[in-house]
Specification:
The protein is globular. It is mainly alpha-helical and about 300 residues long. The protein is built from 12 helices and no strands.
Length: about 300
């Protein structure tokens, strides 16, 4: 429709489709409805922050608080993927793009429409008789499950780490602090310091390789429809590998995010690519320090108890 600038907001709404891939249609619809609220809320908050002249500082507490809320919601309702990665990306990236009130409303409306479309796709299989029979059997054989207990300290801690990850590049005057916050949120989307250290290593190495792929794609002046097709292929490849090897998945996730961002809001390629590596390294470093401190504290408590 000639509004490429809305592509980023529509993609954030489409992130709803990442969740509940292994669930039956009805259960997936319930889970994705909650995720849709979280994603549209992230775009809406980010769009509101973008109206302020102090957005580069206001986005830090806004993203930190939202990361804590989403981390708690993901625990409570069993969201898979876990953590606050996608809402953090949506909020912080949207907040970085200045605009007026009409732009903010369009961003929120576009994300909502895209999220609604993702929900429709998620339940589309129910039109098949075999799928409806499966749903009936699944409900008949399902055992009641207790909601997961909310770990408030983990949720608050995630928000603080994401906030610190954004504070460092913002204080240094770097251009894309949200990459640091996204990297921190991604590495935190695991349980325990050991897994977070592994995820942090995968995040950095996969990002460096993915930036190389992004450079190859962005070096070619692709038409808009071809760019959209490339984004779709990258997303499909990321989904194929994300459960098997997170580092390998990032070889596709990184160019996906960079091409998507540059498609909606063109930016100097070299600046964007180098910023992705540098600010990802900052976010990863914050998580590594946090994880090592957590592991040291656990060992100290164990020794004291022994």
């Amino acid at each position: 429709i000639g509004h490429v600038e809305l592509a980023l907001d529509s993609t954030f709404g489409a992130f709803v489709s990442f969740y509940g891939r292994s669930h039956s249609h009805v259960i997936r619809a319930r889970l994705q409805s909650g995720v849709a609220i979280g994603m549209v809320g992230a775009v809406s908050v980010g769009a509101a922050v973008s109206l302020s002249e102090q957005r580069e500082w206001l986005v830090l507490p806004a993203t930190a608080a939202y990361a804590a809320v989403i981390t708690g919601a993901a625990q409570r309702f069993g969201w898979k993927p876990t953590g606050a990665l996608f809402p953090v990306f949506a909020l912080s990236a949207t907040a970085s793009i200045p605009g007026g009130e009409s732009d903010a409303l369009l961003a929120a409306g576009t994300a909502a429409a895209s999220a609604a479309f993702a929900l429709i796709v998620g339940i589309a299989g129910l039109t098949r008789p075999a799928a409806r029979d499966f749903e009936r059997r699944a409900r008949a054989s399902a055992t009641p499950t207790r909601p997961e207990r909310l770990d408030a300290s983990a949720a608050v801690g995630a928000g603080l780490v994401v906030g610190v990850a954004g504070l460092i590049p913002t204080s240094l005057g770097l251009d894309y602090p949200y990459w640091a916050m996204v990297a921190a949120a991604a590495a935190l989307a695991t349980s325990g310091p050991d897994e977070q250290l592994v995820r942090a290593g995968h995040r950095l190495t996969g990002t460096i390789a993915g930036v190389g792929v992004a450079w190859l794609i962005m070096a070619v002046d692709l038409p808009p429809l071809v760019t959209i097709a490339v984004i779709c292929v990258l997303q499909m490849c990321a989904e194929l590998f994300v459960v098997r090897n997170y580092g390998l998945a990032l070889v596709f996730v990184t160019p996906l995010a960079l091409v998507m961002l540059d498609f909606a809001h063109p930016q100097p390629d070299l600046t964007l690519l180098l910023a992705r590596i540098l600010e990802t390294a900052i976010g990863v470093a914050v998580v590594i320090v946090t994880a090592l401190a957590w592991r040291w504290a656990e060992r100290s408590r164990a020794q004291a108890a022994g």
